[in-house]
Amino acid sequence: MSHWEQRIGNIHNREDFARIVAAMADDLAHNPEGWENVSLAGFLGALAAFALDLDGYFSNRGETVPDEPSWSLMAQMLLAARIYE
Question: Please, are residues 35 and 83 in contact by the beta-carbon 8 Å criterion?
Fold first, then answer.
């Protein structure tokens, strides 16, 4: 399990979400080679594509797509957008 997956498992509220978004900004600044989508346009395009593919993402994990978004799901989507093609 990656450190990002561990952090997502610990998101329970808006403050936890804000902390992971701040950590993502720091990671991009210090580790851009770990990101596929380093431009805002690329990141937002990947975020949109991933949002449309949530059914496939959860199906591949053997999980049900949540009916309502959560802070954790929003963080999963942002983290996926950094590498989603």
Answer: yes
What's the pLDDT tens digit per position in 14-68? 999 999 999 999 999 999 999 999 999 999 999 999 999 999 999 999 999 998 9
Q: CA 33, CA 71: separation in Å to the nearest integer? A: 26
At 5, phi and psi to the nearest 5? -60, -40
Buried b (16+ CB within 10 A) or exposed e, 52-84: eebeebeeeeeeeeeeeeebbbbbbbbbbbbeb
Fill in the amino acid letter for 44: L
C-alpha 21, offset from chain centre: 9
Report the candidate in 40, 54, 52, 19 with the shortest Cα–Cα distance to residue 82.
40
Q: What does 30-41 look like in DSSP terms, one character per residue?
A: H-GGG-S--SHH
